Task: structure prediction
Amino acid sequence: MSDPSRPPAVGVLDQGTDLTFPPGFLWGAATAAYQIEGAATEGGRTRSIWDTFSHTEGRTVGGHTGDVACDHFHRMPDDVRLMAELGLKSYRFSVSWPRVQPGGSGAANAEGLDFYRRLVDELLGHGIEPWLTLYHWDLPQPLEDAGGWPARDTAGRFADYTQLVADALGDRVRYWTTLNEPWCSAFLGYGSGAHAPGRTDGAAAVRAGHHLMLGHGLAVQALRASRPEAQLGITLNLYPVTPATDSAADANAARRIDALANRFFLDPVLRGSYPTDLQADLASVTDFGHVCDDDLEIISTPLDLVGINYYSRHVVAAPVEGEQPEEYWRAPTCWPGSEDVRFVTRGVPVTDMDWEIDAPGLVETLERVHREYTDLPLYVTENGSAFVDVVVDGQVDDADRLAYFDSHLRAAHAAIGAGVPLRGYFAWSLMDNFEWAWGYTKRFGMVYVDYDSQIRIPKASARWYAEVIRRNGLAAQ
Ligand code: IFM
Result:
């Protein structure tokens, strides 16, 4: 719901551009293969874990699948034209592993690669910088059948697949992300089971997280060897984790969740080690025997940039003694070894995902990564919000989403002012799409998609974002 006390959001730029971003700031929008492409059985594509998961009863809302999605596979040239109309400087997309290497091993599928060749050519033809993500959660099903990410071999398979994509597209793509949000792949995929492949095994989740990072490191080495000029990074979904009170118990709860949500990935990738407190917290789950000599050296292979996806903050508290456990305490969770930590809601405005809106958390996150981990250029590779959209007279006035973007871009600008080397921002998402276990019931797009007709309608936020890009900034409030 729009807040009537807020000034009208469209026209926020009318007072002139006061918050200017650095020259060359990379303004973009992001999507992912399974969420938009459709054409699930065309062109030699075979099943991924998300095909299996979404076709399994009870796994997604309404039994929704990515079979058709936004039909982007067939409508790609029109979609790129739309990106150009919005003035996007860059487009972040992911390559579908089961489309370019059906089954997850062996030779490349020329027809699958050809789709991405055409996409990249189309983007370059419109002056849009392609930003390629190698893995956005669609593991080929045969690799899951062989053990999935908890199995070490999957990391090697990922490096082989990376080489195929590098050989085909390396001459035209400058920016590469290895993994998107490995936390989700590991802890939602193998811990809580809310995501594909739907396993509920804390130890498997921890192993999956490690092998995802190992695959990342091997992929960076493969790309570096064949494309020394490429800009290589990983995208992590990071959260500030705040204790609910200033008690020592709540501070400890926050430390534990921060270790699992953030430092589990930041430390190995950017420091070459696992946090010792994380290892102690996980002692009842795993002895980390899956970590082999040299793994951490591979995982911490130097990068050129770090991608950060930011959506919200976690506020957590210690368990209250004698209190009846919440439902989620008994269910498998994505917090192995820390299932008793309580997640607290603060009563602040939330999005349609029930995620609290917290723009200052973006500044905190960017500053933290810069201060504690790296001088590398940072990119916000995803940021956005789901809200219920209504089409009225062919228009979608998504004031809430627009306000979300506006507040987070102000936060991004503040971070730059504080010395963070933030070089770009990608709105999530270019268009409404398959929101994983939520199916098509959650809309994150700047462009509305009518899933029956596949008609695209740029929402008010898209027109506003186009103006931000054109002016390279925002008006002061
Ligand atoms: O839709 C997802 C995307 O695939 C990964 N990052 C978060 C988005 C919103 O949930």
User: Anything to note?
Assistant: Residues 32, 35, 181, 309, 382, 428, 435, 444 surround 5-hydroxymethyl-3,4-dihydroxypiperidine (CB under 6 Å). The two ends are 22 Å apart (CA to CA). The longest helix spans residues 202-226. Residues 1-14 have pLDDT under 50 and may be disordered.
